[in-house]
Structures
1.
Amino acid sequence: MYHKTTGYRVFSYFNYAFMILAGLACFLPLLHLLAQSLSSKAAISGNMVSFWPVGFNVDAYIKTFNNSNFNGAMLTSITRTVLGTTISMFILICAGYALSKEFRGRNVLMWFFIFTMLFSGGLIPSYILITALGLKDTIWALVLPGAFGAYNLILLVNFFKTIPKALEEAAFIDGASFFVILSKIYLPLSLPGIATVSLFIMVGHWNSWFDGILYMSDASKYPLASFLQTVVVQSNMQNMAMSQSEVAAMSEQSIKAAQIFVSTLPIILVYPFLQRYFVKGIVLGAVKE
Amino acid sequence: MKKRTHLWKMVSMVMLSAILVAGCSKGESASETAPASVLKDGKYDPPFTITIAKQQDENAGKYINGETLNDNVLTRWGEQNLGIKIQTTLLGGDASQYNTKLRLALTGSEKLPDVLPVYDTMLVNDLIDSGQVKEITEDISTYMPDRIKDIYKQYPTTFNPVVREGKVYGMAIAPNLTEGEVMLIRQDWLDKLNLKAPTTIEEFEQVIAAFTNEDPDGNGKKDTYGFTFSGKDSYNTGWVSDPVMIFSAYTGKHLPRQWHNDNGKLTYGSVAPGNKEALAKLRDWYAKGYLNKELATQGAWDALSDFTEGKAGIIIGRPWLYDSVKDVEKNVDGAKISAYPTIQGVNGDKTYQSAQLNDGVFMFNKDFQNMEAFFLYYDKMYDAAFSTGEFKYGYAQGYDYDIVNDKVTFDPTKFNTPLEAVQGVGKMAFTKNTPSVDGPGQSYYDLANGVKADTGVLIQSASKDQTTQDGYRISYENRDVLLPNEFNGPPTPTMQNVWEQLTTMEQETFTKIIYGNEPLEAFDTFVKQWHEKGGDTVIEEVNEWYNQASETDVMTLMNLK
């Protein structure tokens, strides 16, 4: 397809070199974290750990998994992610399917949704709303507010729109209802889109910490990301502590590293299973015709 | 960071308007049925609940035995022995999140907790403005136990932020003068190079020069340097990796980033004369490689890793800093750390440091009717500090102390059920730090003078590493160098507009001068600009606040004289 000219070859080398660098930039921090989590406390506080553990031990992992707060937070996070993704996808698929059809008032409806994407009420009204609904201190405060995202809706609607109308018409003639068409034709055909949007939502739920801290008044109900936020953020000038020796008992860097590492693992593990869908990309549907 | 502050400012502005709207609609619903609890033999019957707000710091978040925030050894103790149940209904993570949550609670969307620890002077001010916090002048006078009154009598300035028009709306959280800073030096390096610990700026220079150039670790490489500190947040960090000693050597009591009462007038330390000489010194040292190369990007905690690695020879911080850097004795064979007092100033005086008297203030919901119950509980919390009553050794056996073979121990690894670290039980109720009356380290001073370790506090102090004990003793002996910030009020109107720019300008100028990117004369330009760009107005406003704060004699009103 391409002639192997000198220019092309130089470009190739450059391209490889650049991609390797970019890949390393993403991978090395994780490796550093892993090395820290397996190192001794003294070596870490002396800044002696780079990419290989110094004073190898797995204490940090034992301590992490013996910490009931950590385990509870992990469970909360998993529940939240599964529940949140399921609810979100249900709403988005229903809404997206309907909005991919032509009907009266469709544009007005769509405009309503997009409006929420551009303008939000902000922190205070959301907080008052959640409190007034009595959702505070429940998992619903984490799952429901973000259940519907206009951006994801647009992605799905556009995906659904690319599925040939003829397929639907044929099914109609065979006597299928709207719901049968949705489940038997649209869903299987739009798996790449659904997988991608699911991943967006999943990662979003897994990583968000602010709502956990905002809506939970008991640390044992924190999801993992909120828990890590309180553990990992170092004491600084702003919240300068008075305490005498108690400060010195700050949790060790190796445990922090282990906790961060363990907390990123599940989402990394999910990725390979979804990856095959978006190697082809979210725009795969565009060439289906 | 800057962006964040802006965000919070906007949040707070919106919030104030929201309070105006929401405050009207929801103010009335708070008349709950008063608890019919009666105080009988020091216990309430039936038990009732005090709700609290809490900023969950890293240490306060650790519980053992599956205990939680609202169900732990201390809350259970309170319920069983005092009939008071402490329940956290508002929990925040770090300082800014906690403040946001308090502001959100102010919108009236939920009931404000009974006891509110507040750590931000602006928020203190807004809470008073909102009319939702209780005036406690009378309550302090009536209900505060005498031994606690004696503590508050020592620190009248801690009431400044919470006094408005002669009325008192709060009180400092467990006031107590913090410990001072000491110099931690690699003793083995001093010994190897036949040097003495420095006491003047010239000697200090000689030592750090030797630490840099004469290969104190003996590996044949020039990979060590003298003095590590942090210049990221300010040149007066106040606790660890602090360079303020060098500034104080030339400016005396005028410390950078701090207000000092100069014959009745508050002045700002960063623009005082003497800073220029200090900067000249640091600039010279930086050029010669005596300081850490990345001092401007390293926070207080980052700056100590060079010391722990065995690269740097001197670090300054509170005595417990030894705990954080003692790993160097593991990392490097033969390493040994000793604690010394900070050096003298150029005029022969001591060098000064900033100090804290309290960490935030308590405020109370205006509907909270049980101040005597709060004081009952608060007084019990002080039992551990006074080594009296039920808490004479600590709060809970097996948590923060244990008795093994009839001996009280504070070493968690030697507990009957060994722990990794002691539990900060004192932090489990409404204070972020365990109350203390030990000042900058009196118990250590007493121990060094041969007092027998027979109370909880003394035994605990005696259980620390020798270097830490030395540090506290030095801190106590030099407690006259500790200067609390004289301005502890809310940001003044001009401050709210220009303070961030002024401190940024200050930080940049200082750093650029030390790095050699700007001539030394940049300091004069900075001082001139600082005054012109709002500094003068700020000085005026700060002094106005100070005069007002010291105007009414609230101490007499509270019966604290």
2.
Amino acid sequence: MASWLAPVLPEVIVVGGSAGALDALSILLADLPDDFAVPIVIVVHLPRRKRSALSEVLAAKLGRPVREPLDKEPVSASMIYVAPPDYHLLIDRGMTFALSVDEPVNFSLPSIDVLFESAARSLGGGAIGILLSGANADGAYGLKVIEDAGGLAFVQAPADAAMPAMPNAAIALCERAAVLPAAEIRAYLIRLAGRGGESGRKRYHDR
Amino acid sequence: MHDDTSETEIKLLLEAIYLRFHYDFRHYAPASMARRLSLAMRRFGCRSLSGLQERVLHDAGVFPELLSLLTIMVSDMFRDPGFYRALREKVVPFLQTYPSLKIWVAGCSTGEEVHSLAILLQEEGLLDRSLIYATDINPEALRKARAGIYELDRMAGFSEAYRAAGGRASLADYYTAAYGSAVFDKALRKNIVFSDHSLATDMVFAEVQLITCRNVLIYFDRALQNRAIGLFRDALCRKGFLGLGAKETLRFSDHAAAFSEFARAERIYQKE
Ligand SMILES: C[S@@+](CC[C@H](N)C(=O)[O-])C[C@H]1O[C@@H](n2cnc3c(N)ncnc32)[C@H](O)[C@@H]1O
């Protein structure tokens, strides 16, 4: 195992992607073990002003519940969340969601940078960031903030990504990011979350 | 980060703003406040929050601009068409039973929401007997709301939302196009009172049958949400209605029990 592996069980996994990210997501999140307790929060760029079918599509693909969170909702163990269209999604102190309708960042609403930065600010090294396929540079800066805060950064290998621009932007900015195909990032996640085992799950339930 | 220094600095800055300008941002959601403040630091060329505090306190021109950065001046007409459709189909029949109506649009920003509501009430024959209080803390937003002038290139999107919301006419019937702007008919505003009111520091000012407060509570922390929702509870008449934004809920509020879910998906609540 690489030496940059987090010494503690992560509190949250934040994932960002744009064009081509849906395929990568289905690989990344396929067949997660039942005891995978770390919550996963996803921003995928989508057309604005339209209800999004992403949560239903992912739920069907993954065979587990996927929700758009409400404002002030607690970030719960074992859950997968996706940002709703037309809102930024942030993780606030005390592991609750906060939404905002601020102006777009990197032309994106929701923006990956906004989610990643908020996770780093609220959870420090407790956040893991993963950036997948996409055709723009949103998320690269946010991943760097996670890395600087002591969290782990993963980038989908450009050759593995349908659209390599987003991974490439992140690789240029983040020195310590692990650059891997989606399937290998998945394997790491499962090992990481598994390591917490009983004590990891207990931590979530105690909160 | 988990950055205690910047947390302390944010607290001090918001305290200073409160003491000096009487705007109370001390109970806003920390994550979005931290974002707004880092945007502000960039805008004013400050390297630290203490630097920003120094500027705000000593440079008279800075606060109004900072206020506009901290309050989010964005709004849309008929945002979430399903919300307006539910108002029209489910709430209006109740409103029609009152001889006169008082309505509060809290955090109206630049006025798109309150214009949407006025159009809906007009089409349902209710505008003439309504008095609408449209309130916000941002004087610049209130000025724009009072003027009712929006960029013409936003009208295509607004028209689409208006139709999806069950509009009975054409949105163009309500405005005049001039020099790249859409000027909304002032008859829509004749029963609207625009005024400065803060959900963080001010009290209830009237008894009302309907309140809409959309995408404002998301900027508050739990304590301030409780204060605001307490105001709404006190202002509403028995069986009065409260409409929130699409991703907002009373579920996490201390006052949840004072309301029932009236139109669940559209976030319309009724006071018990
Ligand atoms: C994102 S806008 C929402 C506008 C509109 N309600 C809508 O949904 O389109 C948020 C508004 O809340 C206002 N606001 C922020 N804090 C407030 C407070 N303490 N009391 C009243 N309004 C406030 C801001 O000035 C801003 O205009």
3.
Amino acid sequence: MSMTQQAEPAVTTPPVSGPGKEKDGRTQQRSLVLRLLARPEVGVFLGALAILVFFLIMAPTLRQGSSMSTVLYQSSTIGIMVLPVALLMIGGEFDLSSGVAPVASALTASMTAFELTLNVWVGVIAALVVSLAIGFFNGWLLVRTGLPSFLVTLGTFMGLQGVNLAVTKLVTGNVATDDISDMDGFDQAKAVFASSFDVGGVNVKITVLWWLAFAALATWVLLRTKYGNWIFAVGGNKDSARAVGVPVNFTKISLFVLVGFGAWFVGMHNLFQYNTVQSGEGVGNELIYIAAAVVGGCLLTGGYGTIIGPVFGAFMFGLVQLGIVYATWNPDWFKTFLGVMLVGATLVNLWVRKQATRR
Amino acid sequence: MDRSSHPRSRRFAPVIAVAAAAALTLAGCSSSSGGKKSEEGAADASAGKATTPRMTVALVTHQAPGDTFWDTVRKGAEAAAAKDNIKLIYSADPNAGNQANLVQTAIDQKVDGIAVTLAKPDAMKGVIGKADKAGIPVVGLNSGLSDWKQFNMLEFFGQDESVAGEAFGKKLNEVGAKHALCVIQEQGNVGLTQRCDGVEKTFDGKLDVQNVNGADKPSVKSTLTAKLKQDSSIDYVVTLGAPFALTAVQSVSDAGSKAKVATFDLNKELIKAVKSGDIQFAVDQQPYLQGYLAVDGLWLYKNNGNYSGGGEQPVLTGPAFVDKSNVDKIAEFAAKGTR
């Protein structure tokens, strides 16, 4: 990717072309609608809207508020992890270990608390340390060796899969952890990571709030801070970025650490929602996270993307997964529907952007 | 394929975390309820020990990593091996081709017996023929009820999935279910499909099937919640593995549904849920028994020429029903992770 990619995020804050400026006729002034459509998240927004309308017609049950709350819960458990994964992709790397990393985190918390009979918050903190360390290790190995992130994180992915299983078996004697729901601190931790509350008779899961809060924070960081500029710069062109004084290594490592933080949060939700963890879980989720970020307009090559886009990307995933159920389609075709919908949504996304940026 | 030998430096991270946590124990962060301390004191089952010559047995299954069911099978096999002075080589791969290769490695190692599951019988046929030719006795367990005899295997220990499904369907009739939902956690798995088909055969009410992504709990939960909301007439959720039953209980309450939950297979959390009434009943195929008998069967054949069922009939390990009436008897074994 060339440096010109870096200019793209500027589209989200349209250049000054106010009424005060006179046209010289050399370039055609594009309409507000077209300029809006050119924003990377608009395509996915329209795609998600189209799928939403489609399922609202096909599946009457989806029209209830409580059904939408279930869809949002499903989207949020994907979406919280998609945020750091998207930032990492904008920064030019991706992480294949992001599927099993939450499981590693949950296992650490559960086993630390249970085996040593400690307050579960001790386990939660131990898990945070481990998760951040995994992220740091990924980033450190990447900048240290210069290997592609595909290879580095594939290694971590496989390594973690084995460690999750072997250490759990070694420590507990079983492949699943013990129930920690009767231990000190569990109720508090559950309130933070896995509670729910009623809004107008509709049950809303707290993960939805966390998801939106994290998304707002990530958008602010990406668009309004120096660190956000660094992310675009290292994703666009590492060498040019370094030449203009961007701390490339720090940016890349910190992005992997952020993924570690996301994994910790999702892992804690899984632990406190379901009380036990099975060590073999999580495999395959990494592709869903990456796909949601791509559907949301992040380029696989880096240097381009937003946070709002992947939020809609995750929503679209949750919507399609559950919309198929609400529409009572033959479950044998489940995965096929999912695949067709996603490629379709991405194409709509692409098409909208092309139409909008054409002169 | 010993899964405990992954040389990764990352292993130290949990070690450091545990060490840090240990320091915190002293600092007074320990939990006053639950945890390891409350569980300690349960003794292990131990029988006598055989003095027969050391022999080597390979157990090759189609376990997916981290599955609680197969862990129990393996524990049964290990118990029998310890008692019979057997060196047990355990390996597993859910991919049929890879599993066949694992059997081949056992033949190459000239083991004294092979115990194998036939989740995809056609893929295993060739390599089992090779074991036969090499003079290694092969026993079947868990899956392959309709094929083991044709493959010239010695004996078979397991449960007929269709029969188990049919028994489940009858039980649903007994408890007055009208509209059940069969939840498949691994799309395309032959045994799981047979269970649902078996239930459908004997169940008088209506049966729907729902596929879920078993590798992702939140996805299982919200998919079931969605289904229960979509169709409020569902009054029984039938899961095909213990962890999914526990998740289904949460979905039922989330969806505000009145459906009850029953399941195939057990684990120790599930036993608690049966006790508390969250789960109505479970069909148990006794995986511990399958692993134990398969290994012990090979020992008996080598040392006394015995074979169960005379090589003609399988030995059925299930279906056994566990519900509130008999759960207490099983609970103490389940706590150790052997039921």
4.
Amino acid sequence: MPVPEGIAMKRSALVVVLLIAGISLMLWAGWHNLRERRLAMQKAQESHVILTPAAPAQGGAQATESNPEPQLRGKAAPAFTLVSLDGKKVSLADYKGRPVLVNFWATWCAPCKLEMPWFEEFRAKYAGQGFEVLGIAEDDAGKDEIAKAAKKLGTTYPILLTDGKVSPAYGGIDYLPESFYINAKGVVVEQTAGLGSKDEIEANIKKAIAATGTTTAGAE
Amino acid sequence: MMRSLRWIASAALLVGFQPLIAQDVAKPKSTVIYVAEQQTVPAGKKAVVEVHFAVVDGYHVNSHTPKSDFLIPTVLKVQPAAGVTEAAPEYSTGHDFSFAFDSSTKLDVYTGTFTVKLPVVAAAGSHTLDATLHYQACDHAACYPPKSLPLQVLFTAQ
């Protein structure tokens, strides 16, 4: 039985619409898939960049903007005497015999403020090994503002005010945060620039402690 | 229209050169670039001179209204000039940014290009406004000391 012309046309139109819809759906799915893959790739690349700063000693770390070629690793930590927020004179020499993390930071540095609570946590965790943190504020902000920021971050380790001479001695602090992990003999065992992961920071602290030995010496 | 075209061309040129900037200069002297252009405004009437900037790829600077008192805002300071009356600059709005290690802390930043609008009333003729952009930049993991970028805004009132 022949199909009336009107119905045949409607069927054809329906087929065309379904075809267009199908092709559109396939194109959309392809585009969506590509976009998702690009985003995933981008995220992976970001993580890769961030999670591999200042690779430790084997063969030397690759220099990048945030992770410069370590200049002080294996060398004696430059001596300094600075004034703390509570007005006391603090020298690096006061901590000889103890592993020390010297951290340069500033009130305007958001990544610095992310890691400072971690330092506080590790300071408590490794207190038995004599571990100490010295925070040096490379900041034009006044003492009160620095103190306010330190308090807000919950830091209890000594915060020292820069004299403008200490950062050149440490190779010039062009960006923040920068950290120097110093063993009990006063030697820099690791140097990092930019925010690292919490695990990396702990690994570097352990490295400074391991190079120190297990005894607690030269307590304040 | 011509001004818009010039700005688009400048931005496109800058974007085109971004990879060169990122590759050839490991540590740029400035993370913010002033996109200079000649502009024309009506003389003796309220008008707006736009000052365009581009942030080097891979960096961000705090917006004019960062979300923390401790963060340093982007501020354009303009010196008074003869024949020009200025009002307070108007800044682009920033966008959210978080460091990978702490997605809960949202910063308000500029990336790519941003604009500062200077409302002016100027006498007929050519004018040069001396200005300084104060900003503080960071990349994905580190922050750089606050900087000042001196610049000259050129425009003609006719």
